[in-house]
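Problem: given the chain below (129 residues), write out its structure.
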Amino acid sequence: GRFERDDFDDALPAPGCYPSTIRTARYRLSRGGNRMLLVVHALDGVAPPNAQVADYFTLEGVSARGLATARRRLRRLYQACGLAPAPGEPIEPADLCGARLVVEIADDLYNGERRLKVVGYRHADQPPF
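Solution.
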């Protein structure tokens, strides 16, 4: 066997909107020991290793403004998945698993390396079967 050209193509997909499926959603602890929700989106039409993008929602241990921003993003994610959370309802990560939506991806720099981050969500009007 030989190495193939694709073995060296680790290029990240271009920023933009991608149909996606939520592969996993679960609570995790941040490095600081704070609870957060980790959601992994699998992007349609993007080859591994870049087909999945992690999306983090920090739910404690940050400023009031940071917390409000994370909770607003989480509400928008739920709505894009066709869910209608109400005040007082528990945040159930399992509700998100398998949901189809469209995510907007942008470039982000982390420790000097380019990576992708999710910056927006919208409902997938007619998800394919």
